[in-house]
Every structure is written in C-alpha cells, then in structure tokens.
Design a protein that fits this description.
single chain; about 270 residues; alpha/beta; Rossmann fold; SIR2/SIRT2 'Small Domain'; 2 domains; 6-stranded parallel sheet; 10 strands; about 20% strand; elongated; binds 2'-O-acetyl adenosine-5-diphosphoribose
C-alpha cells in the first residue's frame, strides 16, 4: 500500500485523512447548527483522569460506593472526601487547547451547543457560553433531604461533611449519580440539539453511559453529519461519517484553524 503524506497546518497526514478534514470543514462552513457532545477525554490533557481508560477512575475506585445514593447513605464522609479530592485536582487544572478550540467554534458557527457529561466546568472556564451539563457539576452542592442549594464556600481540605441550615440534612455535590434522573429538562434540550443539528461531534467519550449515549445515535438517525474524535474506537465509531483517532487537544485547534482559512478564502472570493 502506498501512503502519501501531505501537510495540514504543519502536521503530516495521509491523503485520506486530509480528505476527511477537508470534507469536515466544508460541512462546518455550511452548518447553521452544530452540537458537540463531550466526555471525560476532552479534559484528559488538562490532567483530569477519565473513567474507563485503563488508568481511569473506575479502575481504582468503586462507582457503586462513590457515585450512587446508596453509597452516599452507607458512608457519606467517604463520598464527600472523594469529591473533595476530585475538586482539588479540578481547581488546579486549566482548560486545554481542545476546550479553547470549542469555545472558538461559537465565533464561526451561528448556533453551537456543547452538551457535556463532564462535571469539571472547564468548558465554561475556556469561554464556552452555550452549554448543557447533563451530569450536573462538581462545584455546586445541595441538601440530600430538602434539595436546598448549599451556597457557602466548601473547604476542600476539611474532612467534615457540611449540614443543611434549613433541615439539618447532609450536603452532597450537585452531580448526577448512577440511578438518578438528569437535571430537569436538560436531556430534552440535548436531544433537541442532537436531533436538529447539521454537524454533530462526539468527543472524548466512551459512549457507554445512558441516556447520554443515545445522543450520537439520535443525531445520526436524524441525518446529521457525525464526527467522532477519540484515540480509541467506541460503539459509535462505525456510525460516524468521520472518525478522527487523535487527542482532542491536538485536532480541535487544527479544525478551527482550517475553518478560519476556509472562511477567509470564501470571503475573499466574493
Ligand atoms: P470515559 O472514561 O468512559 O471515556 C473517556 C473516553 O475518552 C475514552 O473513550 C477515551 O478513549 C477517550 N480519551 C482519552 N483521552 C482522550 C483525549 N486526549 N482526547 C480525546 N479522547 C480521549 O468517560 P465518559 O464517556 O465521559 O458519569 O463517561 C461517561 C460518564 O461515566 C461520566 O460522565 C461519569 C462516568 O461514570 C457519572 O459519574 C454519572
């Protein structure tokens, strides 16, 4: 087999990879609505562990003990301390080139929606405005009994579990645990975006946790041009129109650069 290498933004690619990028840019330049579904992989290059990779969180910790109401009721202190451990890592982390590139998408695409499973708020810190948090976030907290938001600052060094000033209930992080419903109305909004977009990205997710994992298939069934960015294959890879098997922090900035170049050429040609 002859593999011809071409350069694209200073990186060598095979001819077919170049063609894939070119096709993607044409679709993006023509798109009005783009939905971007992200998972833990987009934050991996910020130093935040994923869940299901060989060195991921679920290889070291038990999700039933740490990410379920049952586990919290059994040992609230252990769960609270685990979330404080994760909060400390997230507080020290910075958004990476992939997060910033997605924030730039909003400059070039009329309607761009990021639908994230991540709880780390790095998309927002990178500047993304239009975002749906399917699994809540690790920054906010609320009472397990009366659901009141807990607005006092959290001391992440402290092992003490805070209590609700309304009812005395335990305070928990406002993330979605296994077996719980997603925040009110959020899935409906995400499903609408996936079902009405021209281009759909699935980035850095293993596409294993439902109902979120239905979204790429919704987009595909409704006719969106589907792009997967993930160094490894997932159940969605065979259905993607283009699967880019690279790190998101490497390829997303390149996609933005190519889109900028394409739009500039189009503008100058008019
Ligand atoms: P996973 O850990 O299941 O999957 C992370 C994916 O990111 C894998 O497919 C990796 O191949 C990919 N990946 C790793 N590094 C990458 C990089 N630099 N660039 C792009 N991709 C990369 O994480 P999620 O799919 O987000 O839910 O997991 C979904 C949900 O399961 C999470 O929201 C969490 C977890 O349990 C709850 O806690 C409810």
């Amino acid at each position: 087999m002859i593999i011809t290498l071409h350069t694209l933004c200073g990186v060598f690619y095979t001819k077919s990879a170049m063609e894939s990028y070119n096709i993607l840019i044409e679709h993006l330049a023509a798109a009005c609505d783009v939905a971007i579904f992200t998972g833990a992989g987009i934050s991996a290059e910020s130093g935040i562990a994923t869940f299901r990779d060989p060195d991921g969180l679920w290889s070291k910790f038990n999700p039933t003990e740490l990410a379920s109401m049952k586990g919290f009721l059994r040992n609230p202190d252990r769960v609270w301390q685990w979330y404080n451990y994760r909060r400390a890592i997230i507080a020290d982390a910075q958004p990476n080139a992939g997060h910033y590139a997605l924030a730039d998408f909003e400059k070039y695409i009329p309607n761009c929606t990021v639908i994230t499973q991540n709880v780390d708020r790095l998309h927002q810190r990178a500047g993304t405005k239009n975002i749906l948090e399917l699994h809540g976030n690790i920054i906010e907290n609320h009472c397990v009994i009366c659901n009141s938001p807990y607005i006092q600052d959290i001391d992440i060094q402290s092992k003490e579990l805070p209590f609700c000033s309304n009812c005395g209930g335990n305070i928990r992080p406002s993330v979605v645990w296994f077996g719980e419903n997603l925040p009110d109305g959020i899935y409906e909004k995400a499903e609408y975006s996936a079902g009405h977009c021209d281009v759909f990205f699935s980035i850095g997710t293993s596409v294993e946790v439902y109902p979120a994992a239905y979204l790429p298939f919704t987009a595909k069934n409704r006719g969106a041009f589907c792009v997967e960015i993930n160094p490894t294959s997932t159940s969605f890879t065979p259905y993607a129109n283009i699967a880019i098997q690279e790190k998101s922090g490497d390829c997303l900035p390149r996609i933005v650069e190519l889109l900028q170049q394409y739009l500039k050429r189009e503008y100058n040609a008019e």
